[in-house]
Amino acid sequence: MLFSAGMGIGLMYFGVAEPLSHYVNPPLPSMGHSEKEALFSTFMHWGVHAWGIYAVMGLVLAYFSYRYRLPLAMRSGLYPLLKNKINGRWGDVIDVFALCCTFFGITTSLGFGVVQLNSGLTYLGVLPGNAFGWQALIVVLVLSVAVLSASSGVNKGVKILSELNLLLAFLLMIFILCTGPTVHLLGAFSDALGTYFANFISRTFETFTFAPEGKPWLSAWTIMYWAWWISWAPFVGLFIAKISKGRTVREFILVVLFVPTLFVFLWMTIFGGGAIWMDQNQAGGALSALVNDPDSLLFYFLQQFPLSKGLSALAVVMIAVFFVTSADSGIMVLNSIASKNKGKTPIWQNSFWGAIMGLLSLLLLRSGGLQALQTMTLVSALPFGIIMVLLCICLWKALKIDLAYHRSKLPYGSHNWDSSRWRDYLNQILSFTKKSDVKAFIANNVRPAFEELKEAFAEKEMDVEIREGKAGPISIELLIRYDKLRNFKYGVMAEKQNVSQYIIDEDNAPTPESDVYIPLSYYNSGRRGNDIQHLEKDEIIADVLREYERFINIAADENSEILMLDREG
């Protein structure tokens, strides 16, 4: 889904056109016509720089939304700086700006999709030409499907279409690799990837100050692309965050930053490198002569392969599906921003966004204004780039607070053992607890401890409740309610444990008779506690009080406000 939403149409549109263009018109004339340089320049535009921007935005949104229960909105990422002002005018301004960036970024992408889809259908003889009427029909049909897909939800229409298109893209890429210059393309991928790693830093900071003849190329390509990725960041970042709940930060970064980057590099090498090789060895320069016609260049490239008509038809289907997935994911993101992530939106709202996007695309295509829309998109990138820097600062501050909070260790029950009950402790160590044991432990140890604590807190006129079954069939919680702070919770639940086969097979070790469960403590912050099966009633009371003291100390620290404020009321 992140591949389809992030770069789908762009890969189909620029996969052949951009490397071939860099080959024909290199950054500096002195570089000559170098396939390695052409692929390296393409990698710089579509690689880590692009996905790094998306990853930063998606991580900020996902972290503050899922970790701290803030709305899945741009404003939430600035909470460490703006505090409660994110719910006022400043928050509205940030979200409206993100909405505009998202809208123009999607519309630009759809504009590329329309003209390439029209060219493909014309090439196949389905349509008689590239008249505006045919483009309008394409927009209406595709956006109608996109509205229905968006209305079905992210786990249905969007997911199904994205998985279908990724499969088609993979099959097309493998076919081109196997029927084209396979050895040459694999070698070109290795060489270009090595060049990318070797020159990543120097090329990142290259401004062509000492080679002014390269500045027009830098403005037309590199600056345009990086600004374009920034302008797309609210759209792609929100979409990636929406589909990433439950992932760790490490998983998020590895998948979003590196997996699509390597896939894009392979795609650009196979299609772009293949086009350069075909132009040199088979097409006699016919492809390089079409670099100013990127709309149809993909189809003339596919003409050099067996089953060219079938490949072109497949490419048209892929462009159409990428068109739909970009549009429906865009509609979902626009709904999320406009409604402050209120949940499922009515179909009329999806239709509204689809109609507005289609209307603007058609107006710009009619007036030849796709370039004007790109310019508007690029202009919006500068101020949003500043916002992204602020978002990075906020994320850094929140992560430091979070890390300090979770590095605070609590002692396990065995830390308080003495020699008076060592035989009891030994028997506990040499036996595995069953579900019934945990149930009995909660009834005989935990509940009496909670009852005494509830009575003691009630004497202080505090609102305390004992709840059962909230974290599972066998669980119990002591809940202290607050108006402003996040509620304090100390819970105990039965958690199933996986026992290593090594200890099961070991004769001189205890062997479980059935499934193994432990009484595990847990807290309102989502932090898991300890296995407390060795604690007596009074020790459980002491453990609760230690955690409550820790809770009060953190709540008293103004730097921990974001962790402790109530988000449920």
The class by helix and strand makeup works out as mainly alpha
- List low-confidence stretches: none
Please provide the ordered H/E string of secondary-structure elements.
HHHHHHHHHHHHHHHHEEEHEEHH
SS field, number of helical segments: 19
Extended strand count? 5
What does this molecule look like?
This protein has helices spanning 2-24, 35-46, 48-68, 79-82, 89-123, 132-152, 154-179, 182-204, 215-242, 249-281, 294-302, 308-338, 347-366, 370-406, 422-429, 435-459, 501-505, 537-556, 561-564, and strands at residues 464-468, 475-480, 488-497, 516-523, 528-531. Strand 1 (464-468) and strand 2 form a beta hairpin. Helix 1 (2-24) runs parallel beside helix 10 and helix 9 crosses helix 12 (308-338). The longest helix is centred in the last third of the chain and has 37 residues, at 370-406. With 569 residues, it is mainly alpha-helical. It has a five-stranded antiparallel sheet with strand order 1-2-3-4-5. The chain has 19 helices and five strands.
Quick overview:
The protein has 569 residues and is mainly alpha-helical. The chain has helices at 2-24, 35-46, 48-68, 79-82, 89-123, 132-152, 154-179, 182-204, 215-242, 249-281, 294-302, 308-338, 347-366, 370-406, 422-429, 435-459, 501-505, 537-556, 561-564, and strands at 464-468, 475-480, 488-497, 516-523, 528-531. A five-stranded antiparallel beta sheet has the order 1-2-3-4-5.
